[in-house]
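Reply to dn_fold:

You asked what the input looked like. This is it:
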Amino acid sequence: MDERMAAGARTSLPEWPARVAVDPEGTSYALVGIGDPAEGIVRGWVGEVLMRTAPSPVWTAQADRADEVVDALDEQLGRARVGWRLMLAGPEADVLALRARALAAGAVDEEVRCHVTSRERLRVHCAHCTAETPVTAPPGSRTTCSGCGHPLHIYSHLSRHRGSYLGFHADVEAFR
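and this is what came back:
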């Protein structure tokens, strides 16, 4: 049985759109691309903004990993004002990490748009020690926590505030 169905047909896993358009209500934009596939997506977004009758200010960043743009994004978040929009493109793990950082800094859902280029990697939040473990495994599988070393079940729950999936002791039933 599909794990989502076993959980009462409820899941927090996002359905990522195939195309993400620039928000026409934005007055300034921060566009971030992670990885080679995201480079063309960001170029397209810049084109959309520049095609307007009154082009808006655009800041862009391109990197191989999310942690390479964190400081620059933090600076942009500090300058954000009403009308500012953040658009992220890249692998799910990187996009979610940057999105979570923006939300923690005060951005709201309506200001952030995401285009996911792959779902091969994800981060798992250990419910036991709170460590974040990067993995290349899908929800429903198992991994080992990088913090406490427990075998973890990767649950089909995504925290939008942490940008990670929930992991809990894979053999929890053995403790009953």
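The mean pLDDT is 89.
Hope that clears it up.
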